[in-house]
């Protein structure tokens, strides 16, 4: 009897482990910090948190843009991202704007920027200074220059180290939809 | 589960890179770097061949406006102070087109060099002709060159260290480790690294 009990316990244990595994895959790791000002929130993450945003398996089309308030070409292309987010957001579509601003700039620059530009796409902050450890996990070919964008759905993925016009970005989004 | 995910991710990335043409221009480890004649902030032209006693160079593409470049200014000065006397001076080059980034004009380079007390040449890549040959994409972007009979051989490409935001939290000083190895006639252990930086405005 005792042997059976042990086996059943082991099986139950494994089952729990598997369940845990599944739930972990879908959830986003806890944020480092939540910045809040003027009713606008921005969560910051280490790369582990960002990585789960880059590897969701749920039929949603993800557009993930790496930017910073001090990056002139990034700021220039953000209105195109915002406009296309408004256009596609009601479908299976999720846009995430990953700010690489330094932590001390989040409250003084990033949140006022979100407010001023009326950004509706989700802004999260990547705070992980050892960039060499994670740049190639975003895309092997990324040199580290911003702006940079990943578009993916499940296992189909494209990486762009460039600036977009609205037309160029929509063409790329459409190439995933059609 | 995680292992599978990683394997899958690596595979996807592998497939993507296999079908994307990688940037064909720019130097790799072992390439012979071009010399140049660029205007320094003191209005005099500077070339690598002017440094007859140098054993090599720390060529850093950097600029005024980029917060990452600014975060590294003091560390670049320290590198020059430490390694110039050992034969590896810093040569800083601003690759940006001032028409696209007005804070990176030649006049503003002079101001910044004076403010910070740069101990090294701060050169202007007028017409943006040199940085594409090196394959620099962002600021700061470091190339360590070793002077040999064949020419200036690229021995390291990448970041200065592993923490842009806090010099006191740095664990690995990539540039220092590379030069220390070269000075001992050893092979550079970490030859390439990547860092976030501001894209070069041409």
Textual characterization of the structure:
The complex is a heterodimer of chains A (178) and B (202). Chain A is of the alpha/beta class. Chain A has one domain (28-177): Glutaredoxin (3-Layer(aba) Sandwich). Helix content of chain A is 43%, strand content 24%. Chain A has helices spanning 2-26, 47-53, 72-88, 106-116, 135-138, 166-177, and strands at residues 33-37, 40-45, 61-67, 93-99, 122-126, 145-146, 148-153, 156-160. Chain A has a seven-stranded mixed β-sheet. Chain A starts with a helix and ends with a helix. Chain B has five helices and ten strands. In chain B, the strands form two sheets. Chain B has an eight-stranded mixed β-sheet with strand order 1-9-8-4-5-6-2-3. In chain B, strands 7-10 form a two-stranded antiparallel ribbon. Chain B is of the alpha+beta class. Chain B is 30% helix and 21% strand. In chain B, strand 8 and strand 9 form a beta hairpin. Chain B has one domain (26-199): Glutaredoxin (3-Layer(aba) Sandwich), CATH 3.40.30. Chain B starts with a helix and ends with a strand. Chain B has helices at 2-19, 67-84, 106-116, 131-134, 174-183; strands at residues 32-33, 38-40, 45-46, 56-61, 90-94, 122-124, 138-139, 141-148, 151-158, 197-199. The chains are: A alpha/beta (178), B alpha+beta (202). Chain A binds chain B through residues 21-22, 24-25, 55, 68, 70-73, 100, 102-103, 129-133, 135-137, 139-147, 155, 157-159, 161, and chain B through 1, 5, 8-9, 12-14, 16-17, 20, 22-23, 65-67, 71, 100-101, 137-138, 158-159, 162-166, 169, 171, 174, 193-201.
């Amino acid at each position: 009897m005792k042997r059976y009990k042990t086996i059943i316990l082991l099986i139950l244990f494994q089952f729990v482990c598997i369940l845990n595994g599944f739930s972990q895959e879908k959830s986003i790791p806890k944020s480092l910090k939540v910045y809040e000002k003027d009713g606008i929130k921005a969560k910051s993450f280490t790369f582990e948190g960002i990585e789960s945003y880059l590897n969701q398996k749920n039929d949603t089309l993800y557009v993930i843009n790496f930017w910073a308030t001090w990056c002139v070409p990034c700021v220039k292309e953000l209105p195109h991202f915002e406009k296309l987010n408004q256009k596609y957001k009601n479908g299976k579509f999720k846009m995430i704007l990953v700010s690489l601003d330094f932590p001390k700039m989040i409250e003084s620059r990033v949140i006022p920027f979100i407010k001023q530009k009326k950004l509706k796409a989700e802004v999260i902050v990547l705070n992980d200074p050892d960039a060499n450890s994670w740049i190639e996990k975003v895309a092997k070919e990324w040199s580290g220059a911003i702006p940079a964008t990943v578009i993916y759905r499940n296992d189909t993925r494209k990486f762009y180290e460039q600036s977009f016009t609205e037309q160029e970005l929509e063409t790329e989004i459409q190439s995933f939809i059609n | 589960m995680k292992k599978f995910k990683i394997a899958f991710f690596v595979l996807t990335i592998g497939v993507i890179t296999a079908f994307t043409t990688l940037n064909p221009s720019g130097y790799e480890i072992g390439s012979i770097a071009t010399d140049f004649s660029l205007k320094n902030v003191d209005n005099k032209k500077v070339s690598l061949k002017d440094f007859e006693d140098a054993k090599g160079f720390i060529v850093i593409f950097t600029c005024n406006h980029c917060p990452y470049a600014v975060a590294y200014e003091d560390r670049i000065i320290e590198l020059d102070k430490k390694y110039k006397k050992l034969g590896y001076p810093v040569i800083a080059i601003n690759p940006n087109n001032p028409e696209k980034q007005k804070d990176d004009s030649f006049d503003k380079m002079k101001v910044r060099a004076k403010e910070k007390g740069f101990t090294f040449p701060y050169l202007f890549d007028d017409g943006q002709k040199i940085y594409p040959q090196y394959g620099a994409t962002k600021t700061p972007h470091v190339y360590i060159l070793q002077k040999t009979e064949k020419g200036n051989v690229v021995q390291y490409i990448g970041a200065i260290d592993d923490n842009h935001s806090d010099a006191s939290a740095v664990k690995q000083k990539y540039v220092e480790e590379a030069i220390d190895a070269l000075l001992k006639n050893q092979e550079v252990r970490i030859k390439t690294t990547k860092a976030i930086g501001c894209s070069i405005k041409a």
